[in-house]
Design brief:
single chain; alpha+beta; 2 helices; 4 strands; 29% helix; 47% strand
Length: 94
Amino acid sequence: MSALLDDITRAVEATVEGAVKHRESVQIVETYRGQTVWQGMVEVFDVDTPPPAVAYGWAVESDSGAQYVAVKGEPPADSPMAAVRVWLVSQARK
């Protein structure tokens, strides 16, 4: 496992408050009005605590270095793309 995936895994585990297992990596390109607003690799994790669940995580570069985003796989964040959209909306509101 790469150092980046290790860091993302730890961020996701902190968010879901439990152990996770990496399932897959999904390339996402999110556009708005024909412009790319975010693109990157979203890591998908199975959450070990019952009931069966999923979570998503990825890294974002900022002026202060890498930041790790973790989103629980709960509606409306029910896919990697939807998780990115939920995060983008939260960023726009800040």
